[in-house]
Amino acid sequence: MNKHDQIHKEGLIQTLCKAKEQAGAVKVYLIENNRDSEDIFAASLALEHVEIALEHLGAQVPEK
């Protein structure tokens, strides 16, 4: 992978890390406020997809 490609990959990883934080926060909010179980499932699924994408990119993202 050349330098230009690596820069784009790192940018994507940073964006996905932010998305992971937001999806996690939404999930916690929905659970804490006893929201609809379908909404909680959707947030959980979104979080899982972001984590899978990070894994495919080889990102080393610590668990919180």
Describe the structure.
It is a single chain. The chain is mostly helical and 64 residues long. Helix content is 78%, strand content 0%. The chain contains two helices and no strands. The longest helix is centred in the first third of the chain and has 30 residues, at 3-32. The model has no long low-confidence stretch (mean pLDDT 93).
Query: So how many helices?
Result: 2
- Write down how many β-strands occur, each being a DSSP E stretch of 2 or more residues: 0
Could you state the oligomeric state of the chains shown? single chain
The general outline is elongated
Topology of helices and strands:
Elements: H1 3-32, H2 37-56
Brief account:
With 64 residues, this protein is mainly alpha-helical. Helices cover 78% and strands 0% of the residues.
What key phrases describe this protein's structure?
64 residues, single chain, mainly alpha
